[in-house]
Design a protein that fits this description.
Blueprint lengths: L13 H23 L8 E5 L4 E8 L2 E9 L3 E7 L8 E7 L4 E8 L1 H15 L9 E5 L6 E4 L2
Antiparallel strand pairs: 1-2, 1-7, 2-3, 4-5, 5-6, 7-8
Length: 151
């Protein structure tokens, strides 16, 4: 398409100008399709390990979990829900890390479901709670939370 611009007297002939415009539109539409058809970005996954007392943050690619960071339960300052005034926006569940303003979004969804998950996380992360359970809680990022048994 770019080569048509260098043809001598390219702008004098209506056929060449229309071919240039058609190719420009075709390349633009094809580029827009390529940009819009990329696979959606996966949200980080948080795995809560009650036996080791830590949180593993990572991404799941092709069914395999790839850890990015590991946090101890003592590093988590609070667990809170962020509700939006706009009812169309989902409620989000966050972990506040340390004394600063660092937070990690671990799930989003209906407020009633996240409230139950928040209560379970608070019970699991509190230092006085007995850590006798052998299961691992897997929070699938900003998607629906799932429970998996350690195996």
């Amino acid at each position: 398409a770019l080569g048509l611009l260098f043809i001598a007297d390219a702008f004098d002939d209506f056929g060449v100008v229309s071919a240039q415009v058609a190719l420009l539109v075709l390349v633009g539409v094809f580029g827009a399709i390529l940009l819009r058809s990329r696979p959606p970005r996966t949200h980080p996954e948080v795995q809560v390990d009650l036996n080791l007392g830590d949180l593993r943050i990572g991404r799941r690619r092709r069914g395999v979990f790839h850890p990015i960071a590991t946090l101890k339960f003592a590093d988590v300052a609070s667990v809170y829900l962020l509700r939006s005034k706009d009812r169309r926006q989902p409620t989000r569940l966050f972990l506040r890390i340390g004394d600063g303003e660092d937070s990690i979004e671990i799930a989003e969804g209906p407020a009633w479901r996240l409230e139950r998950l928040r209560q379970r996380l608070v019970a699991d992360l509190s230092p006085v709670a007995p850590k006798t359970q052998a299961d691992v809680l897997v929070l699938a990022g900003a998607r629906r939370p799932r429970l998996r048994a350690a195996g």
